[in-house]
Amino acid sequence: MPTEALSIRQALYEAVQTLKGGGIETSVLDAQVLLGEVLHKSRTALIAADPFELLSAEHYNRYRSLLERRLNGESVAYLIGRREFWGLDITVGPAVLVPRPETETLVEAALSFLAPDAKGNVLDLCTGSGAVALALKHERSGCAIYASDISHDALAVAQENARRLCANAVAFIHGDLFENIVGRFDLITANPPYIPSELIPSLPAEVRHEPVLALDGGIGGLSLIQRLIVQAVDYLAPNALLLIEADPSQMPALERFFRENAYQDIRFWNDLSARQRVIGARARD
Fold first, then answer.
1. Is the pTM of this model over 0.85?
2. How many alpha carbons fall within 13 Å on the CB side of residue 112?
């Protein structure tokens, strides 16, 4: 602690300079969010607060601790334990990926297929924190939503989110892709691991803090996705749709693989950067 207590304004200035020096591009936003977390204020409330309000020693020390962890590569979402996704406050931790804005494209694609009064069965594979499954339940409450993941720890996080956000109205299943899945579905969504194994060691430090199991898509990044596409045929109801998020650079290869495996009506959905982020197709009758 400095010899004299710092004000909110001084603490933020010091934090921004520290984060900038560590190469953090979002230094202003991160400094505000983390100080807001320490002071139990929203970012908006922090900005509106008296800038000359002094921090206690306890608050200052906790703030410095969070900043050090941010400099060491931990994401802000992990540091505060949550991330907003589709307007929902999703709990996150080291067992799950942090939901990305790009993944909201997967939700948008699913909602374009499911009518507002839909009553069908929906399966979300590789659910992680459950963000996609919970967003779909929030928007299409009449659908029966099932979600699966290979990680017990990830499912524990997803179940806690479901308990808090939708009174446990999503059914969770442990298994590798379709392992332990029974029946057919009107829609299957998936945000599977799709980063090539060979690129994992070179990922930014922030990403390397996330679970490798949820990142590593095998050689070329498509091993798991190709297995998913082959297996999904046996779980899609007539006229059902399979939607998969992947890297835009992988879309041509995935389109070919869909065609080779008797899928039809292949289409793409773009993310906010106008890049193809989600591919969807129907299995041929």
1. yes
2. 14
